[in-house]
Amino acid sequence: MTTAEHVDVLIIGAGLSGIGAAAHLAKDLPATSYAVLERREVSGGTWDLFRYPGVRSDSDMHTLGYRFRPWRGDTALADGASILDYLRDTAREYGVDQHVRYGHRVAAADWDSSTARWTVTSEVGGERRTMTADFLWACSGYYDYDAGYTPHFQGQERFGGQVVHPQHWPDDLDLAGKRIVVIGSGATAVTLVPALAAGGAAHVTMLQRSPTYVLPVPARDAVKGRLTRLVGEEWSFVATRWKNIALQSALYRVSRRRPDLVRRLVRRTNVAQLPPGYAVDTHFNPSYDPWDQRMCLVPDGDLFRAIRRGRADVVTDRIATFTETGLELESGERLEADVVVTATGLNLQVFGGAELSVDGERVEPSRTMAYRAMMLSGVPNFAFTIGYTNASWTLKADLVGEYVVRLLERLRSTGTRSVVPVRDPEVEEVPLMDFDAGYVQRVVHTLPRQGTRAPWSLRQNYLHDARTIRRARLDDGVLRWS
After folding, report:
1. How far apart are CA 394 and CA 179, in angstroms?
2. Structural domains of the chain in order of their starting residue, each with its CATH number
3. How confident is the model over 376-397, as pLDDT tens digits?
4. 29, 36, 376, 400: which has the fewest C-beta neighbours closer than 10 Å?
């Protein structure tokens, strides 16, 4: 019988979270053996998968970059290729790239209390392989890499043009001189529209059922540039990072406490960016409050610039049916199109679709409660990384990395084999993500729950978490060590 390979820590996913997790181990626990299982044949996760025109970050890079490895330069919202280079450079610098096993789709992971080990089964080239690990760390994000979300559209089979989802953008798609309709109004849509308009399309229409909050921001951080000249790259990164964290946090807090004020400020900004007399209240006035859904940032107002120049427009309406040559809307208006882009969202998938079990009993995520939004009640030696919905993903990913390092250090120093959060039955449960975005609401009932008080509650507040998670006692009475 062949003995399965064993490592101290097994990480699922070699994207932004997985590379960061592995780098934390490499720099803080160099004696720890680890492997990274990546289902695709390359690293980078989202930033390699998405290849649509204009793909870029929707958070500023000085907070999206890792805390331990500064994002250099003053670019605020970077393009996808630059982010991918940054991730792979980080992997090389910390030797993470030598630990990644590509083409490994994790299918199942079972915890055995008698041996205090995980047995992880992966599908590799049509075969099944197993590894064992003392600690399992899911860093696969929270959406399905196989397919994005596309609702059913009446009559789509009649359309004589091409229908494309941004998650699977064809390399050979020729858009020169084409009439393009982008269905959607989220971060992907507001990125695509100006990029397509500048890329030779005859005209681009963003078709939305309802508006989104869109806020122009500088493509380059002028403060970062000036600070770099004064104090150098390293210190300017630290200062800029904290400046941007403070601004993000302040905007979110004011949005929740004074939504009408923020709505007015955003509207005033939109009016200044758009042509005189533009129907701002039709196309840029959402029915929900700021930050009920994620706010879209556009570098140097590129979406508004494309509208001003007549290269793009926005239509707020519902689709009645596809036609042979485009779309017919419920208002009766027709949109002629050669290409329709369905920027209609993502499908969520927890833990990369892996099925977890403890001593042979399947773990139903919806029946667990998330401890500090990074571990699951009743599941030993397991952590997961999911970032913030109201700030840069990596802010939370770095906190999770630091916390897991502390857990592993304590396991090693005390000679204990396992650690598991034990749920308090008196803590009431609420949805893990209090977020109105469609991709969340479609599956929120399948996700782990959160509690109504610490350490089971999720604050969505980096400034709070940076204090409480970094200083949290590991013998808090909730974590059981054995």
Report:
1. 37
2. 5-146+348-481 (3.50.50.60), 156-342 (3.50.50.60)
3. 999 999 999 988 888 899 999 9
4. 29
